[in-house]
Structure formats: structure tokens, C-alpha cells
Amino acid sequence: MNERFLMTRRELLMAGGALALGALLPAGRARAEAGKLVAATYPGTWSEAHRNVLKPAFQKRVDAGVTQSIILGTDQVARLAAAKGQTPPFDVAIFDPPQVLDAVRQGLIAEYPAAQSPHYAELLPVYQDRWGPKVSMQVIGLAYNPERIRTPPKRWDDLWDPQYRGRVGMTALNSQLGLAFLAELNRLRGGSSSDFEPAFRALRELLPALGAVAANLGAFATLWQQEQIDIAPYNFNFVQTLKAKGVPVEFVVPETGAVAWHTSLHVVAGTTVPELAVQYIDTHLDPLVQAAMMQPPYDVIPTNGKVALAGAVTQSVAKTQDALAALRGVDWAVLTEQRSALIERFNREIRV
């Protein structure tokens, strides 16, 4: 309750609301003097891993408080943009590629001071970036219910198999999962970055098989937990989290290969505690922290080259860091430019 109150007060200060307390310090200065950091985190697996692994490791390393604010990437960009020129609502952002592009364009994140981050050099080069290190990789493939589907699917085309009619799931395109699947489907069906008609034609053909289209990843997880769907594109570590909760679901990489993108941490422009922000991010890069996050029930894929892959990721995705880094990505720069139009078209044409 206290943390929620402090967050509300800070937001009011950012908006320029003057509290009738003349001795009260400005929010940013008060945060800095109190040694307090506010870090954004995603819902679900991410927030659990950050709360149970990252937070205690950071507080062991640095004598500072930290509040982890659970918020989606697009909402982070919106809140930072609204507060631009004032004290930002949080000091560390967590983004997937589309939000990184938006944040850089709007000047919402600072260049990452790699020289101040001891573990940064331990990352494989593909995970190093001037705007912030890539702390994990998101991998999508086919998820399925092994109690209902005895023979594991092998290819994306299996989603169109008549035996799964009414049991296929998808997420809307406001999630990176939905967009990445659309891009991969378009590639496989002969489309291009300027022509998504092949993907939409395939989705229209899939309509009879669709049992549900989730508005977001939280709703998608609920569909699996309630066994309303049996097969769908899904993130590897989200599948592992559901399995740990007793949900019957397995993950398989299609024969055409997995699709992957990176999740990264960033120092927010204008933060009053930049040193703490870097320390927090560098703690996430620590091989001990990444190795702990790789364990169930989180299964967060590591990017530090000193962490040997182990467990479920080696069984389903890749056995080495080099093989992991070589997974096919998505051209987010091109895709993001069309995102609004693609979302609008999807919402208009793909309805269950």
C-alpha cells in the first residue's frame, strides 16, 4: 500500500501538481537523496524473475531501495513521453525492439555507459547495443496441449490441419508475439515487407480453426490455463512458466526454425539516479543472476557468454549460446513503420 501511495504522489508531482507541503523536496531529488530506484518490468514471468532474483541481488550489491513497476512496453513509452522534460516516472525501462525504436526516436532513453557496467563486456557482441544491453532473447514456436495432441506438431502449417478446428489460438497484433508470427507467416507464404497480403490471406483461411484471439499475453495465458485452446504460436519461456503451474502445454520449434527477438534494459533519459540505474542493469547481466533466471519456473534465456545453456532451453531451442544468437530475427524497423495499419487491418479482418 505504501509503495502504491508513493507512486501516486510522484506522478502528481510530475504533472506539476503542487502539494501544500512547502518543505517537500521535488520528486526526482527526493528519490536520489533517498537512494531509491524505480524500474519497469513486464507482467508475468518477467516480474516474478525480477522480484525474486534480480531485486535481492541488486540490493545485496548496492545499499539502495528499488520499486519494480509492472507495465507493458508501449505503456512505458507513453508515460515517458508524457513526462518528457519533467522527472520521469521510472529510471530503468524494459523494452522489446519496437519500443526501443520509439524511445530512441523520441529521446526517452540515454546511451548506455558500457564503461561503467563491468558485466557488459561479457555479453556476446550481438547482445551489446549503444542504447542498452539485450538481457534476454524471446523465442517463439508452436505450443500444444500434449493431452489432446499426441503427435507433436512439426510445422506452422499444422495450425491449418482440420483436426484442430476451433482449437487454435492467437494473440492480437498489439503483442510482439502476434506481430512476429504475422511476419514469419508472411515470409513463409511469399510476402514481403511491403506486401502482407499473403499473411492475411492465410489468416483468413485459418478463421474456421481459430478458437480464440487473445487481446494480450495475460489473456492468452488464461486461455491455456482454462484449456480453451490446444495449439498456437507462443513464447518459449511463457510455455515453461505455464508448465510449472501444472498446465498441460509443450513447446516445439517448427521445421522452418524458431523466430526470435531481444528484450533489453535501458537508462531512462532524465533520471535523477543514473548510477543506480546502471548498477541495476549491470546486476541483470551478472552471470550468477542470469543463471538463476534460466532455472524453472522463469526460464529466462541468458545473454551473458559466461552462462552455459542448460535445462529446457537446450531441449527445445538451442544447445549453445552461438546457436541461440544465430536464430532468425524480425526486421522490426520495417515492421514498426506499418504496425498501426497492420493492427487496424487485423482487428477488422480476423475475428472469431
The CATH topology of the largest domain, please?
Answer: D-Maltodextrin-Binding Protein, domain 2
CATH architecture label name of the largest domain: 3-Layer(aba) Sandwich
Helix content: 40-55%
Determine Rg (CA atoms, Å): 21 Å
Class by SSE composition: alpha/beta
Q: For the record, give the distance between the C-alpha atoms at the N and C termini, rounded to a whole number.
A: 40 Å
The fraction of residues in strands falls at: 15-25%
Please tally the helical runs, counting DSSP H or I stretches of 4 or more residues.
Answer: 15
Summed over residues and divided by their number, the pLDDT gives a mean of 89
How would you summarize the topology of this molecule?
Blueprint lengths: L1 H13 L12 H7 L2 E6 L3 H17 L3 E6 L2 H10 L9 E4 L1 H9 L28 E11 L23 E4 L4 H13 L8 H10 L3 E5 L2 H9 L5 E5 H9 L5 E3 L6 E9 L6 H12 L1 H8 L17 H5 L4 H5 L6 H6 L1 H11 L3
Parallel strand pairs: 1-2, 5-6
Antiparallel strand pairs: 3-9, 4-7, 4-8, 4-9
Helix pairs in contact: 3-10, 6-7
